[in-house]
Amino acid sequence: MSMKKFLTVTAIAAVAGLALAGCAGPRDAGDTAEEGSGFEQESLIGVALPSKTSENWVLAGDLFVNGLEEAGFEADVQYAGATNPVKDQQDQISAMITNGAKVIVVGAADGGQLNTQVQAAADSGAVVIAYDRLILNTENVDYYVAYDNFEVGELQGQALLEGMKAKKPEGPWNIELFSGSSDDANSAVFFDGAMSVLEPMIESGDLNVVSGQTDIKQTATAGWEAENAQSRMETLLTGFYGTEELDGVLSPNDTLARAIITAAEQAGKPIPTVTGQDSEVESVKSIMADKQYSTINKDTRALVAEAIEMVQSLQAGDDVTVNDEESYDNGVKVVPANLLPPEIVTKENAAESYADDDTLGPLTQ
């Protein structure tokens, strides 16, 4: 992993200091057996997921329920509500601890507001696995399983350039930047990955952010909500693109990409090159219809399977597979991570990328 990636993940935690990385076996704490001894297979496994803001979170919940039960565990899979997701998730994790969960898998609604709950998990002897989103500013997260999110951003930045060049071979190109919700630790990682590709070209003048809004605070989309992205896009088009042509938009995921495209269509503007992420059905359709340019294939089935495999290793008392013990500093410790490789998808390679996906594959034929 690059030093820039390491610094990017450290920055999102906003806490100085660095602790040693965790070991690759179960935590030695509370009632959990010492490293290497595991626990009973029928044990309760908790899974705390954020609000159902995307298709992939919904799919993940179903996959966790089925996969954990098939593996012989008792599964408690909970979603935070949309109104007060942080409080909901805090209460759900607390209940899982009370009910004796041996492992708690957490897709954080807000990775910076779970310190009390993961401390309680540590005190109970439960192992905490951060799923997709890093849990910040605590030593009590044992593992992180995710796609390589900095690489996701890099791929989005590269796709944006390739899509614009395909439409307009010679620059400069006018672009606008969108990022995810500020309470999601991944948002900064995606954005910084993309900017590692785009910023040199902004500095050289090959890319022009007409609005001047290049800071992540200016580009953030509260709650990852489509209406917030659409509203901001409408404001950008009205304020800066009366006569200027917009060539491309960096969108961090598919839900926001479709909202950005809708804003352009409703304003009577040509659809710019728009990136995305998550391989949502409607966005795959949009890619095949030459509207959205790209998405990122982060197969939720593979990610959930990796998380369940980690649980099985813990249950058996075996070492947990990790492939990165350097990059993911949460502000207090470097969290041992198991990272999967993301894949950029455009119309050109969609059929190949989704060949074994019964839902998405037929859309690309």
Written overview of the protein:
This protein is of the alpha/beta class. Helix content is 41%, strand content 13%. It has twelve helices and twelve strands. Strand 1 (44-49), helix 2 and strand 2 (74-79) form a beta-alpha-beta unit.
What are the key terms here?
single chain; 365 residues; Rossmann fold; 2 domains; 6-stranded parallel beta sheet; 4-stranded parallel beta sheet; 12 helices; elongated; disordered N terminus
Reconstruct the topology from this structure.
Elements: H1 3-13, E1 44-49, H2 55-70, E2 74-79, H3 85-98, E3 103-106, H4 115-124, E4 127-131, E5 143-147, H5 149-167, E6 173-177, H6 185-204, E7 207-209, H7 216-219, H8 226-240, E8 248-250, H9 254-266, E9 273-274, H10 281-288, E10 295-297, H11 300-316, E11 337-340, E12 343-345, H12 350-353
Helix pairs in contact: 1-6, 2-11, 3-4, 5-6, 8-9
Number of E-type strands: 12
CATH second-level architecture of the largest domain: 3-Layer(aba) Sandwich
Q: Strand content of the residues, in percent?
A: 5-15%
Largest beta-sheet details: 6 strands, parallel
Roughly what percent helix? 40-55%
CATH superfamily of the largest domain: Response regulator
